[in-house]
Each structure stands twice: as C-alpha cells, then as structure tokens.
Amino acid sequence: MKKVAIIGGGKVGKTLGRLLRKAGYKILGVVNRSIESAKKAVTFIGDGKPFRQNKIAVGDADIVLLTTPDDVIKKTCDGISKGKGFRRGAIVLHCCGSTSSYELLESARKSGAYIASLHPLRSFADPSTAIKNFKGTFCVYEGDKKATPIVKKIIRDIGGVSLQSKADRKALYHSGAVFGSNYVVALFHIGVSLFEATGISHKDATASLLYLLEGTIGNIKKVGVTKALTGPIERGDISNIERHLETLDIHNSQLAKIYSLLGSIAVDIAIKKGSITNRKGVKLKKLLKKFAK
Ligand SMILES: NC(=O)c1ccc[n+]([C@@H]2O[C@H](COP(=O)([O-])OP(=O)(O)OC[C@H]3O[C@@H](n4cnc5c(N)ncnc54)[C@H](OP(=O)(O)O)[C@@H]3O)[C@@H](O)[C@H]2O)c1
C-alpha cells in the first residue's frame, strides 16, 4: 500500500486525499498552517494524522503532495528538503497548472526524490462536489521519467484521464485552459451586456445566449472546432462586420478591439474550414486591423 503525505490540505489536497484513500492508498498525514485546519482535512479525507510540522508528516511517505497555494510551493519544498524530510526515491508532486516540477521542486530532486506535477483540469470550489464529479477529469502531468509512470497510475486510480505536457510549456497549457474556460465566461459576459444595451433583460439575455452557446458546444462535439465556426466571418460578410466594428467602436472601443483581435483568429479558422478564400481573408483582416489598436 503506497503511503501518502499531504502538505496543504485545502480544496485540492482534501479532494485528492479522499480520492486516494478510497483508491486504497494510506494517508499518513496532512500538514496545514493551523492544526485546526489540518484536523478538518483529516476528518474529510477519513485517514491520516494532522500536523503543523512538514518534516514529521512527510516521514517515510512514498508520495508527497505539495498542495499549498502556488506562491509557497517552492519555499515549502525547499524547507522540507533542507530538513532532509523527503526519503530517497519518494515521488514529490505539486498541482500548480502553469509551472513545471523542475521550477518548483528541484530541491526535492537534489535530495534524491523523483519530482512531477499533476494538474487536474477542474475547478475545486467545493471538495465534496469535486469528488462526486471527479471521474473523467483530465489531469495534465509532466515530470521525471521515474515519476511519470507512478503519476499516471495515481491519475488512473482516482478516476482521472492523463494528458502529458512538455515541462517547459506548462504556462502555455495553462493559458489554453484560461482561453478555453475562463475567457468563455468573460466573452459570455460581453455578449450579455451588449444584449442588455438593446433593452433585453439580463435574464432573457442570459437564457438566449446560453441557448446559442449550448448549440455551439454541441456542434464542436459533433463536427470539431473548425467546422463548428458559423457567423459573419465564416460567411465572409464584410459589410455586416464593418457595421459591427463601427457601432462597437462608438459604444465601447475596447469591445471593438476585442472583436477585431478575435475576428482575426476566426478568419484563420474560416480559411481552414474553406468557407472563405485566402483573398477574402486578407480583406477581412485589413478591415479588422483598423479597429485593433
Ligand atoms: N482550486 C482549484 O480549482 C485548483 C485546480 C487545479 C489546481 N489547483 C492547484 O492546487 C494547489 C492548491 O490549491 P487549493 O485551491 O487547494 O488551495 P487552498 O484551498 O487555498 O489550500 C491551500 C492549503 O495549503 C495550506 N498551506 C498554506 N501555506 C502552507 C504552508 N506554508 N505549509 C503547509 N500548508 C500550507 C493551507 O492551510 P490552512 O488551511 O491552515 O490555511 C490550505 O489548507 C495549487 O497549486 C493550485 O494551483 C487548484
């Protein structure tokens, strides 16, 4: 039975801890800043001892999860390494999405541990809900050759799906997640605000755009991203696009800029789809560029 120590039993630490415990791993200990918080994490996980001291908890763990906030992962790892807290051959993992293991956990490697990162592509607002919905969650990993087979096994054991990222490209991967999820919310917000500016209520704007978005998601699932593009750029409808840009520029010039920058990406997709010619694409980009500054 693999023994696990969790340094940082917060939203992610508690969720992974409970999932690992259910998958048959032994949770040795959970370390938080306050002992009260560590006790709560242990109760939630259903195993382990609560600690405030990193070294004691790590003990002879086979796997150490460093699930503290991102800005203290390196400092925490360095502190444990300095106290000779990691045993040789242990797997030390962090869960930060944008930074590689070698940037944050190098001191653990120097102490003889194998290092990796495991980023679950999911929002962990509430650990109980995250556990219920975890099955099928994509988990992006990178790390030492000796660590990655074990990390893949951990992901499989907790019901996730593994995806490997190049270590030096993690910030690109994480930006991709921002575009693919967080910025969809930001764009949706813009859409709702423009509907509201025409007199449509917030409730109706949300409902109608949600209906549209659900259709788009359905199309992406059915025909893939490129073929799912519809709308004026996909049709090469220059006069409509010009009208949008001029109106947006008066209403809120920032939105005209966003429209034009994203429009240029949409032009590339439309060319790839074959719905507009290269020549039409050049014309559209010239128009969009006027509003990009
Ligand atoms: N939240 C998400 O949706 C999400 C998704 C994917 C990946 N991640 C990654 O998961 C990691 C953890 O994020 P989180 O959202 O779980 O954070 P969190 O809920 O804020 O929990 C952080 C935990 O770390 C403890 N802690 C803070 N400083 C510490 C220290 N110096 N030593 C020991 N414990 C310390 C805190 O203890 P106290 O309770 O005593 O304050 C807290 O329990 C981060 O790397 C984050 O990027 C998060």
From TrEMBL:
The superkingdom of the source organism is Bacteria
Cross-referenced Gene3D superfamilies: NAD(P)-binding Rossmann-like Domain (3.40.50.720), ProC-like, C-terminal domain (1.10.1040.20)
- Entry's InterPro entries? 6-PGluconate_DH-like_C_sf (IPR008927), DUF2520 (IPR018931), NAD(P)-bd_dom_sf (IPR036291), OxRdtase/DH_put_Rossmann_dom (IPR019665), TM1727-like_C_sf (IPR037108)
Q: Which SUPFAM superfamilies match?
A: 6-phosphogluconate dehydrogenase C-terminal domain-like, NAD(P)-binding Rossmann-fold domains
The residues covered by the DUF2520 domain are 138-263
- What sections of the protein cross the membrane? none
Q: Which residues form the Putative oxidoreductase/dehydrogenase Rossmann-like domain?
A: 3-120
Pfam families hit by this protein? DUF2520, Rossmann-like
Q: Which protein is depicted?
A: DUF2520 domain-containing protein
Q: What is the lineage of its organism?
A: Bacteria, Candidatus Schekmaniibacteriota
